[in-house]
């Protein structure tokens, strides 16, 4: 309670402190109304510390406002003038500036109590210096507790007495509805046997946390008329809606009687018919206070698949490493969940969202360019919405496919030339020792542009090809999706369907691309081969030459690739089940290695069938004929020609393609009410920043002022009466 002279304080401001105190701030310090006798009290130093701490360590919340910008805003709303200085009254600050308690019949005492958070001198008026100091508090990471402490610290002594605590707490709505014994052992443990001891900030925070737990226990004892440790379901509902109302969502509030009437799986929660035992009461309240931990267990168990429904046994197994969660609480959790969907004894994220009083939001770590909600819920999803979702996926898949193909096209060209290289040499044909030698000779004889021969038809064709493959895979996976779970055979069939559907685009594209890629091998300056000449030569039917081999390659490739990718994503996801762009690329790249390598024989056969044979080279009549002749003339190793090049091409191509496809879905977010790619979102509690004010006069910390006062009510249960009581 000692004070420090302003002169000595200003002398201690070293040059290193200059960045924390502007000239205007220094003038505010010297001319502050906080202490008219030229000294600073300890509460004021706490204010200064809050300023400094906010400037140094709390940038992640919201940046401080410049006092020069706050001055005209303060002057605009301040209606009281004393000795030439402007002051805000309680109503100026709460009703006019913050826009709270704007009703005509507002509770005047509640407004004064809220305004006292900014009124350091507790004289009923708020000076500009106090206005700036409270803005600093609102920027601090523990703004909720600091603001509550300022409200209860009625004499600005930086400590709280039992009388101060009782005076404020008795004005809250829960104390109006449910009496509390302030002579209880609970109060004496905090304030001493004679209730004369004062408590500081940290002790107050703990008191605020524990108070409503104690009130709940006292309320239970009050309604336990028989002294047998049980109360009626009606009394249980009354206690929960008055004392514990801040923990209840509308769903829980409306099902209090139902959930207290009995349990699932043959377990009875209540002591007797329509009776609630104290163990159940304690477990129920404990569960509501642990919903953030419950969500973490669910996310860890599902690895980011927010549509997955887990059983009670699976959830119990996942909670074994969390001593804070008891089996009784899990029983109650699943009973509440079952009330939302009778007969289905599973838990999903939507069930947790119904129970969690702190609202959850699903978000991505990437800033969304679009954020469109096509339907409000899955129940509104119809045929038209499903068609739009398919078109959306097709469009993004086209872009992703084009990006992937362009990125690895030089590797694809080398792979094609290596696979087409026959056992003997021919006049004018360039021979390659290996893939690196092929790359060097293409650059040497055809230039850098030679690495991109046939790119145009590849881009034109690969867009619908990859789009239909990705779209079909997602479409079939959705059909096998039951409660967020897709069986392995469903994943394989979905991948195979995607591979089969793409052949209608792939085969014409491949045959034109391959003939353009090998066109540079024969040195004939006077003869130029182009896309149109190849199409005229082949005709429509010829464009599907080697289609069987294409099926033989693409169907098993996709059947291997997409299930491997789905499981690799889960393996690379973080603790929140989120996949970063790096983990997406790694999962897509690694999944392409076995898929591309194992189907190389089919790719060799397809290439041989689609390339125009030159004079003296072996011709093939079909898939089986090609396989026999290749084995007879070149041996078993010939089927694995270009494996390294194929893996080096397919793995990065699908890495780029799938990365682009998923990132585009995050950037251009549209919610069609269907399934989202796993790992694309994280589910977090909404913060005060999500509720920040849009009022242009609310700058700096004042963007969070209304949300802070609301948070005090909903987190601590400090609900103040909004209206004056009309006396009859």
UniProtKB/TrEMBL annotation:
Keywords noted in UniProt: Calcium, Membrane, Metal-binding, Mitochondrion, Mitochondrion inner membrane, Repeat, Transmembrane, Transmembrane helix, Transport
Cellular compartment(s): Mitochondrion inner membrane
Gene Ontology biological-process annotations: malate-aspartate shuttle
UniProt superkingdom: Eukaryota
EF-hand domain location: 140-175, 211-246
Start-end of each Solcar repeat: 388-479, 486-571, 579-667
Membrane topology of the entry: Multi-pass membrane protein
Gene Ontology molecular-function annotations: calcium ion binding; L-aspartate transmembrane transporter activity; L-glutamate transmembrane transporter activity
Gene3D superfamilies tied to this protein: EF-hand, Mitochondrial carrier domain
One GO CC term on file: mitochondrial inner membrane
Homology family: Belongs to the mitochondrial carrier (TC 2.A.29) family.
Quaternary structure (record): Homodimer (via N-terminus).
Protein's UniProt name: EF-hand domain-containing protein
Source organism: Pristionchus entomophagus
């Amino acid at each position: 309670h000692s004070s420090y002279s302003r002169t000595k304080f200003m002398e201690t401001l070293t040059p290193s402190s200059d960045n924390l105190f502007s000239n205007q701030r220094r003038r505010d310090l010297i001319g502050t109304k906080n202490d008219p006798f030229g000294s600073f009290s300890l509460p004021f130093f706490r204010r200064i510390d809050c300023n400094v701490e906010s400037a140094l360590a709390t940038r992640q919340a919201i940046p401080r406002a410049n006092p020069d910008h706050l001055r005209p805003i303060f002057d605009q709303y301040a209606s009281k003038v004393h000795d030439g200085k402007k002051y805000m009254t309680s109503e100026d600050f709460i009703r006019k500036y913050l826009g709270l308690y704007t009703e005509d019949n507002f509770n005047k005492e509640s407004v004064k109590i809220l305004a006292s958070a900014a009124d350091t001198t507790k004289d009923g008026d708020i000076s500009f210096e106090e206005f700036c100091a409270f803005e600093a508090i609102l920027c601090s990471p523990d703004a909720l507790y600091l603001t509550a402490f300022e409200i209860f610290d009625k004499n600005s002594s930086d400590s709280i007495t039992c009388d101060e605590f009782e005076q404020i707490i008795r004005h809250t709505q829960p104390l109006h509805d449910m009496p509390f014994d302030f002579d209880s052992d609970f109060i004496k443990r905090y304030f001493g046997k004679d209730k004369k001891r004062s408590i500081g900030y940290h002790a107050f925070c703990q008191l605020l946390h524990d108070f409503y737990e104690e009130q709940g226990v006292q309320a239970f004892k009050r309604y336990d008329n028989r002294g047998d440790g049980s109360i009626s379901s009606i009394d249980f509902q009354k206690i929960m809606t008055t004392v514990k109302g801040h923990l209840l969502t509308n769903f829980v509030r409306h099902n209090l009687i139902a959930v207290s009437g009995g349990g699932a799986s043959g377990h009875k929660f209540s002591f007797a018919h329509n009776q609630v035992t104290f163990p159940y009461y304690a477990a129920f309240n404990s569960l509501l206070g642990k919903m953030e931990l419950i969500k973490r267990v669910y996310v860890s168990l599902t690895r980011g698949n927010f549509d997955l429904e887990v059983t009670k046994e699976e959830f119990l197994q996942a909670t074994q490493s969390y001593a804070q969660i008891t089996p009784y609480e899990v029983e109650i959790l699943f009973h509440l969940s079952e009330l939302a969907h009778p007969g289905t004894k599973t838990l999903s994220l939507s069930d947790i969202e119904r129970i969690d009083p702190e609202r959850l939001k699903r978000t991505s770590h990437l800033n969304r360019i679009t954020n469109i909600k096509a339907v409000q819920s899955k129940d509104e999803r119809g045929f038209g919405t499903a068609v739009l979702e398919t078109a959306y996926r097709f469009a993004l898949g086209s872009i992703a496919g084009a990006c992937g193909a362009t990125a690895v096209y030089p590797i694809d060209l080398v792979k094609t030339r290596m696979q087409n290289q026959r056992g003997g040499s021919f006049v004018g044909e360039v021979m390659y020792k290996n893939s690196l030698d092929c790359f060097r000779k293409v650059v040497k004889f055809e230039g850098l542009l030679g690495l991109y021969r046939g790119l145009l038809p590849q881009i034109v064709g690969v867009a619908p090809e990859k789009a239909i493959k990705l779209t079909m895979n997602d479409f079939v996976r959705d059909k096998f999706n039951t409660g967020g779970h897709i069986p392995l055979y469903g994943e394989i069939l979905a991948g195979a369907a995607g591979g089969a559907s793409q052949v209608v685009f792939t085969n014409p594209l491949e045959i034109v691309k391959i003939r353009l890629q090998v066109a540079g091998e024969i040195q004939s300056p006077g003869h130029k081969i182009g896309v149109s000449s190849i199409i005229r030569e082949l005709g429509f039917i010829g464009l599907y030459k080697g289609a069987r081999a294409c099926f033989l390659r693409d169907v098993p490739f996709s059947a291997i690739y997409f299930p491997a990718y789905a499981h690799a994503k889960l393996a690379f996801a973080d603790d929140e089940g989120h996949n970063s762009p790096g983990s997406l690329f790694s999962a897509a790249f690694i999944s392409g290695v076995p898929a591309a390598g194992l189907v190389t024989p089919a790719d060799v056969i397809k290439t041989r069938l689609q390339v125009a044979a030159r004079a003296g080279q072996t011709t093939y009549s079909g898939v089986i004929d090609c396989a026999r002749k290749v084995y007879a003339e070149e041996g078993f190793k010939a089927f694995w020609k270009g494996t390294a090049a194929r893996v080096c091409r397919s793995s990065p191509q699908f890495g780029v393609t799938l990365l682009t496809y998923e990132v585009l879905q995050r950037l251009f977010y549209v919610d069609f009410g269907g399934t989202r790619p796993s790992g694309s979102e994280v589910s977090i509690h909404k913060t005060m920043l999500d509720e920040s004010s849009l009022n242009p006069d609310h700058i700096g910390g004042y963007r969070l002022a209304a949300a802070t006062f609301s948070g005090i009510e909903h987190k601590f249960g400090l609900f103040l009466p909004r209206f004056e009581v009309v006396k009859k």
